[in-house]
Write a structure and sequence with these properties.
It contains one helix and no strands. It has 124 residues and is largely without helices or strands.
C-alpha cells in the first residue's frame, strides 16, 4: 500500500491509497496455498529477476571470493600498474608531507616558517 509519507486512517485512505505490486517482489503460488501474507519471506534469485520488474524486497547474496583493494592512477593516459593499501598509505603520507611543506603549486592561506625549517620538507 502506498499512501504517501504520512500514515492515514483506514476509511480516509480509501481514495488516497493504491496497491502497488512489483513483479520482482512476487512469486507464483501453488494451487492449494492460501493467498495473502506468508510467514516466510520470498527470496528472489538472480535468474528470476527482470530489469523492468520493479523493486526487490529481499535477495540472498553469497560472496564467494573477496579480492584485496587495488588503487589505480586517476590520469587516463598513465600506464602505472595498480598498487595495494600499504603503498597507497605511503603515497598519501608523502603527499601530506608535501602539502604541509607548502608545495609551490598548492596555495595555503597561512604559511608559518620556510619549508626547509620543517621536518621532512625539502626546498624547491
Amino acid at each position: 500500500m502506498d499512501s504517501g509519507n504520512d500514515g492515514a486512517e483506514v476509511l480516509d485512505a480509501l481514495d488516497e491509497s493504491r496497491l502497488i505490486i512489483s513483479g520482482n517482489s512476487c512469486s507464483l503460488a501453488r494451487w492449494d496455498v492460501k493467498l495473502g501474507f506468508q510467514p516466510q519471506a520470498f527470496v528472489a534469485g538472480l535468474s528470476k529477476l527482470s530489469s523492468d520488474g520493479g523493486v526487490i524486497v529481499l535477495m540472498d547474496v553469497i560472496i564467494e571470493k573477496v579480492y584485496p583493494l587495488a588503487f589505480m592512477p586517476a590520469e587516463k593516459g598513465d600506464r602505472e600498474p595498480p598498487w595495494n593499501e600499504a603503498e597507497e598509505r605511503s603515497r598519501e603520507d608523502k603527499w601530506k608531507v608535501s602539502l604541509s611543506c607548502g608545495h609551490p603549486y598548492i596555495s595555503h592561506p597561512v604559511r608559518i616558517g620556510t619549508p626547509a625549517s620543517r621536518p621532512g620538507c625539502k626546498t624547491w
